[in-house]
From TrEMBL:
<dbReference type="InterPro" id="IPR002130">
    <property type="entry name" value="Cyclophilin-type_PPIase_dom"/>
</dbReference>
<dbReference type="Pfam" id="PF00160">
    <property type="entry name" value="Pro_isomerase"/>
</dbReference>
<keyword id="KW-0732">Signal</keyword>
<feature type="domain" description="PPIase cyclophilin-type">
    <location>
        <begin position="66"/>
        <end position="221"/>
    </location>
</feature>
<dbReference type="InterPro" id="IPR029000">
    <property type="entry name" value="Cyclophilin-like_dom_sf"/>
</dbReference>
<keyword id="KW-0413">Isomerase</keyword>
<dbReference type="InterPro" id="IPR044666">
    <property type="entry name" value="Cyclophilin_A-like"/>
</dbReference>
<feature type="region of interest" description="Disordered">
    <location>
        <begin position="202"/>
        <end position="222"/>
    </location>
</feature>
<protein>
    <recommendedName>
        <fullName>Peptidyl-prolyl cis-trans isomerase</fullName>
        <ecNumber>5.2.1.8</ecNumber>
    </recommendedName>
</protein>
<comment type="similarity">
    <text>Belongs to the cyclophilin-type PPIase family.</text>
</comment>
<feature type="signal peptide">
    <location>
        <begin position="1"/>
        <end position="20"/>
    </location>
</feature>
<comment type="function">
    <text>PPIases accelerate the folding of proteins. It catalyzes the cis-trans isomerization of proline imidic peptide bonds in oligopeptides.</text>
</comment>
<keyword id="KW-0697">Rotamase</keyword>
């Protein structure tokens, strides 16, 4: 299954698989439909077995973790994220669990999109856009989601298919409210990703692997 990012783009050829475990131009490109499900109440998180784990990891416990920040140590510098556990408790719980188990360590952000939508997609240990943690869980959406510069959200392959892939928005992006927003980068981190994006993709096209590789060495939760 590919995780994707689907956005209504003027360029039909540009498909962004940034929001779910695939490779398409918009987090919703995998055919995801808009969901208006509310955030799950504390203790109600459900993580369902799905596919084969790209890296051995345990599914999170059901009770949301108390996690406030995440720091991604990368080859281009540290990316600091304020996590929003009030808005997306089950997503933050999963992200924190995967981070603490070293799931994101030594992985590569496999996709950069510089046309139509402006995101860097990470979180797949295989680097192909098809990998995941071996489980999935429901969206945490209320229909008010926006994807301004600095937003951190989950990629998906359709409704309720969240896994491990996420995307970093480095410039204001218009997408339907189909991708769970679970945090925001600080100003310096947003600028760091934007500087990386200015270098374009390996192919020179608007969607592909970054010309400058972005490797995550570790993810620390605070």
């Amino acid at each position: 299954m590919r995780t994707r990012l689907l956005a209504a783009l003027p360029l039909a050829a540009l498909s962004l698989a940034v929001l779910a475990g695939c490779a398409s131009a918009d987090p919703a490109e995998s055919g995801a439909e808009t969901s208006t499900e509310s955030a799950a109440p504390a203790g109600a998180c459900q993580y369902v077995e799905s596919g084969t784990a790209s890296k051995e990891v345990d599914a999170p416990v059901a009770d949301p973790a108390d996690a406030n920040t995440a720091v991604l140590s990368t080859s281009i510098g540290d990316i600091t994220i304020t996590l929003d556990g009030d808005r997306a408790p089950c997503t933050v719980n999963s992200f924190a669990s995967l981070s603490e188990q070293g799931y994101y360590d030594d992985t590569t952000c496999h996709r950069l999109t510089t046309s139509g939508i402006f995101v860097l997609q990470c979180g797949d240990p295989t680097g192909t856009g098809t990998g995941g943690p071996g489980y999935s869980y429901a969206d945490e959406l209320d229909g008010s989601e926006t994807y301004e510069a600095g937003t951190v959200a989950m990629a998906n392959a359709g409704p309720d298919t969240n896994g491990s892939q996420f995307f970093l928005v480095y410039d204001d992006t218009v997408l339907g409210p189909d991708y769970t927003v679970f945090g925001h980068m600080d100003e310096a981190s947003t600028a760091l990703v934007a500087e990386l994006a200015a270098g374009g993709t390996e192919s020179g096209l608007g969607d592909g692997a970054p010309a400058t590789p972005v490797d995550i060495t570790s993810a620390t939760i605070g």
